[in-house]
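Risk register update: the risk that structure generation would not scale has been downgraded. Supporting records follow, first protein first.
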Amino acid sequence: GGGCWAGLWRSGGRRRGRGTGRSSSSGGGRRPGRPCAPLRFLGRLECFPVHGRSMMPEIHGGQGVFGSDVVAGIKPDRSCPFWPRPGEVILVVDSKGRMVKRVRHLAAEEGATGRAWVWILGDNAPLSEDSRVFGWVPSHRVEAVAVAVVWPPWRAHWLLKPPRRKEAIWGPLPP
């Protein structure tokens, strides 16, 4: 799991039609969440084209779908608690649109529920507008945790390490 971060993560009240507010119960005598996890995973998965060059060489940006990588990400919330960890790539929304950046640090306000922040940096520092420019990003601005580059096919690769891939698909594994 995400430790105290998971308990403090905040959706910020953003509600979108697809994939939000669905039940994750699996019913019967089965282990809760496990048999239905891949379906829940698919309901939370969304693809995002990358436009800038701030994440090169890991992720290539460009103009249009054929000139840029497309990243698949999981939208975390309390029903699908796939919270970002340091070193992982996330999709962030601000007034200018979406950005793809790497999480360097996580912070949570002590004693408060729902208040958390991320410090994000681009892999290509000279071309990146990131937390060095605008500071800490509130957790409700994080739209998704990037799982993989899915397009173009010759550049497709995982962005998560193997244990996190399993967690992304199956949910948190029991201790």
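Supporting record for the second protein:
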Amino acid sequence: MNKQKLIEGIKKEKYDFSKPETSLDSSDYKEGYNDASDDILDIIKQLDEPQKVKVPASVAEKMKRYKSALWMLSSEYFDTSSEVDSDELANWIDQNSETFFRAWLDGYEVEEEPKWVLKHQNGMYFTRFNEEMEPLLGGEKRAYRFTDESKAEALTIFFNGTVEKV
């Protein structure tokens, strides 16, 4: 039972005096019963709801494919015909085991991968190369977003500017 269902159940009980044990005609009893219900509701509202954890996109993709933690673990750790990225995934699971299982139990959000852009000294951004392999510049919205910072850094040799994380 989750927190919300528990709250709804207690709210239903609050004014339900149809049960034999609550059918006493005493207004003091009914008032005490409702006060106790309010106190219980206040305590329940203080409970923490489990929060979704963040996992890398590659892990989220595998989780969707496998549909269960057991199936995923057995496949990634023991299947010798598994894919090339299995070692990387197994290492992530080893280093983030609590996050891995929380993701299966409480749900998860996909971690946004960091991106980098090249900013020219004139304030414009690298967008792409033309046919002559000359860099073309444009506004920040059109800037090419690198997923690997080292590749962006390598281009600064040919491009008079700096790398910025976005």
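DSSP finds seven helices and six strands in the chain. On this basis the risk owner (M.S.) recommends closing the item.
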